[in-house]
Amino acid sequence: MIRFVGSVFGGLFTLLTMGVFFTALSIGAIFYMYSRDLPSHESLAQYAPPTISRVYSGEGRMMDEFAKERRIFVSSEEIPALIKYAFISAEDKNFYTHHGYDARGIAAAAIEAVKSRGETVRGASTITQQVMKNFLLGGERKAERKIKEIILATRIEETLSKEKILELYLNEIFLGQNSYGVAAAAQTYFNKTLSQLAPHEAAMLAAMPQAPGKYHPVTEKKRVTERRNYVLREMWQNGYIDEATYRAEKELPLKSVQNGDYTAFRDALPPRDYFTDEIRRQLSGTFGEDEFFGGGLTIRATVDPELQKEAAMALQAGLEGFDRSQGIWNGTRKVIDPSKLGSEESWREALAAVDIARDIEGWMPAVVLEIGKTAARIGIEGVAEDGDGHFIPAEDVTWARKRQADGRLGKKAQVAGDLLSVGDVVHVRAMTKDSDGSFIRWTLRQVPEVEGAFMAMDVDSGRVLAMQGGFSYQHSVFNRATQAQRQPGSSFKPFVYAAALDSGFTPATIVVDAPIEVNTPQGIWRPRNSSNKFYGPTPVRTGIEQSRNLMTIRIAQEIGMDVVAGYAERFGVYDKMGQFLANSLGSEETTLFKMVAAYSMFANGGERVEPTLVDRVQDRYGKTIYRHDQRKCDDCQLAVLNPNELPKINSNRERVMDAITAYQLTSMMEGVVTRGTAAGINLPVPIAGKTGTTNDAKDVWFIGFSSNIAAGCYIGYDNPRSMGRAYGGTTCGPVFERFMAKAIAKYGGTKFKVPPGGYFRKIDRFTGGVLPDDATGDHVVSEYFREGEDPINSIGFMVDGGFGMGSNLPLFAYGESETTAPMTSTVTTATGKTKVLPKKADFGTLSSGGLY
Q1: Is residue 344 among the annotated active site residues?
Q2: Which pTM was predicted?
């Protein structure tokens, strides 16, 4: 019997031993099998997570930030112990004692799952395991992944310290609201740094990993509060806080940015605008989207915030001025259901939800609450109600007619109800007295249908100081300064004249201003001057000052469109310009960005300058990976600089234009501003520039420059159509003038630098004749000629371009109109003699042989 019992127990022992052996063997085999093809954990030692890229102004103020995963990396040493203890208590209280996995935690989770028959399945992963899952394995819920987690966790524990593992975890973890890592989450939820967080705030962050997509501090306030209090209790029981702190902290209300208890971090930044968005667009192409949005780049922008603000206001004033002159009310086309207007709380909530531009200085969204007999009562976002309410009076609407649903225009408004209906969402602005700024009344505003762009840059460094790509970035993110392809019209003409000056012309060369006929496949092309008049033999200077189309075409024909195209391409206006005569008048499309950059090369004496919105880019480690200005300042290395001298900067930039040509062209373009098509511009320093108005005024331009800043504006409808009686000088000119007044006050300006290698002679600007040195009068202009170049014997005393000319067509040979023309005019002939032309000479009295 004893032998039998012994035999049974022996068999059972053997069976148990074999079972344990084979179980251990199987587990070992499983772990061996899964450990063979695991990803390497060694890369975690060089952890470089996607972090926020930030844009700063030249003064170091943060302007904007970009990220797909909003993360701010902080090292373990910078993370307060309170934060670490909160997450350890919430996620892995044995973190500092286990070796990568927690056997007791796994067993407890398994028992709980069995007891609940699978209904309650809680995670048993340690922080180390979560790091492995997040970095190397993915999130699928499978036993296979759990095994791999354990294997990798034990390996990483042998490689990295506990503090390094915690650093990986606290920087990588998703905590809701597009916040990755504890530093970004602290900013998102509390607008605080980690060191500023109280225990209850740290506990709230530690509550988030359980369900970051669901735990919203407003919509799920109760659940988040319960989880927060659980974490606080764990922190107390684990000895990280005392009981008094626990009991005090758990009674505190759940506060957050989302609940309106703290201002959002984003509110401290200026609204995103065209400038920073263009940086995003350009650098995403240069560095790639992954690096830009996740590389933690520090970007130093070239923008001058003061001038950027002025550029926006100047362009907005110009666009709104033109829009008001049209007298048409379009409104926002946004309407709130009148049933939501019953209470102030209701209409404010509804108005806040409306997608409408809120980045226009001084403008506020409002909703029409009531239409009275003459006025409309409105509710204004951000403005408290008063006893009487806020109103749009009848006198504020009489400028407009409402566009009806069928596109027709209604009658001119007499009362507010003629334009507005209850529930209409509108923009309003406070009208104030100029004398003391006191409030007068509320006025209606609307985002104009017409659009435009403005840009300004330093002519020597290429630094873009301001860029406004439309009326409002929040209304339309399309950047018309860099993305809109528009016809530059006559603002292109300086490139034709530059090519001519380098081809032997002088500012005094005579060019015939007379009718032209060109045979094209589409029929005969008969270009004309804007005035529909012809002015006969005219100096080159007057041709550009008065923007003569016919002279420009003759010059282009004379020197060849291949030469003109070469200049335009060299200056970067076009990549490859079509060699058609019409393109000499600016009929081929380009961008404002390219045009302003090209004009900068006129201003700086003909050196290539590349426009840039960025001075410098540094990577996450502070290493400079891009710097725009490659010029060298040797004097800047000296210990002491002469206070009476500027440091010398050596530039090896390419010369795209002869310096004398650049000055001659600049001098002629000064004439455009002083007495030509932009004569309305009045600024305290010398200004040169050129207007542009395309056929039917579909686009109007003005681009100009001082000695140090070039700026340009274009205005036109996004779907080009006629703007009526709009001109570059009168529509864009005031925008340029307003901006440059501010820019000059800040940066100054001087006379344009005269290059060596030439001399001045006084010339009659109407005839091109050489005048004595003591000549004075409105007709006298001092022209700069190259040494060895005789004003009398220069090329083409009367250039006709080889075109045949008609007969008996009236000419205005002196001045600008019949009323200002004298009875006779004089020109200098090829032999140096003076010839007198009678008033209203015609082509019956002039030959095409170039006698004059």
Answers
A1: no
A2: 0.84
